[in-house]
Amino acid sequence: MNRQIQDILCTAEGRYLNPGEQTTLREFAQTLEARLVAMNEVSGKEPVIIERTIKEVLRAYPDLEQRYKTAAQSCTRDMTLVLRYATLAMVRSDPQYLQDSLLTWMATILKGIGFAGHFVTDTYKTLERAALKELSPATGKLLQPFLQLCIESLGNNLTGESSAKVK
Predict the structure, then answer these.
(1) What is the model's pTM?
(2) 46 vs 130: CA distance, rounded Å
(3) Which of 51, 53, 165 has the alpha carbon at shortest distance from 113?
(4) 145: burial class by Cβ within 10 Å (0-12, 13-18, 19+)?
(5) Pairwise CA distance, residues 47 & 67, whole Å
(6) Residue 68 DSSP symbol
(7) What integer pLDDT is reported at residue 161 of this predicted model?
């Protein structure tokens, strides 16, 4: 559930919703159908988006597969996870959910592996480009802020790491 909606409902226990709270709930409900339609579109296009992303990343970083034996499989797993969580955050209209549920943990993992910030940023910008190319403009507009959060959160947390393995 969207954290703002959850907070409103918890705060309103034992009383009726005030006009501002009602407005927030109505606005959320009015856009829910569009977000669900967008989710279904992303779900249907996921294989193409992920495949395109992986091909472009491996083309841009040809030594990745030499350094990591399971690079393609790991990239596929990670890109799919990020796309799915970003999409669910879009449905929830809750960027904090994305940050708390995936990005903080994933940034720690990527840092521990030693990936350079620019590599991670490039990778998730590639995911964003592939998604926006495959998706309708309406779906792209809904999803893009969440993909941007992935780029900023994952890439910025690693920027400046001098011990990076992928350069």
Answers:
(1) 0.88
(2) 10
(3) 165
(4) middle
(5) 25
(6) -
(7) 41
Q: What is the DSSP string of 13-60?
A: TTSPPPHHHHHHHHHHHHHHHHHHHHHHHHHHHHHHHHHHHHHHHHHH
Kindly state the tokens that stand for 96.
Answer: 């904090």
pLDDT at position 52 is 97
Rounded CA-CA distance 121/2 in Å is 27
**CA–CA separation, 43 vs 93, rounded Å?**
17
CB count in 10 Å sphere of residue 57: 21
Q: How far is CA 103 from CA 35, 42, 75, 89, 123, in A?
A: 21, 19, 15, 12, 14
- The packing angle between helices 137-150 and 117-134, to 10°, is 170
Q: Which two tokens stand for residue 16?
A: 């009726």
Instruction: Name the nearest CA neighbour of 46 among 89, 90, 91, 76.
Output: 76
pLDDT for position 157: 65
Rounded Cα–Cα distance for residues 13 and 11 (Å)? 6
Residue found by looking up tokens 């559930």 in the block? 1
Q: What is the largest CA-CA distance in the chain?
A: 62
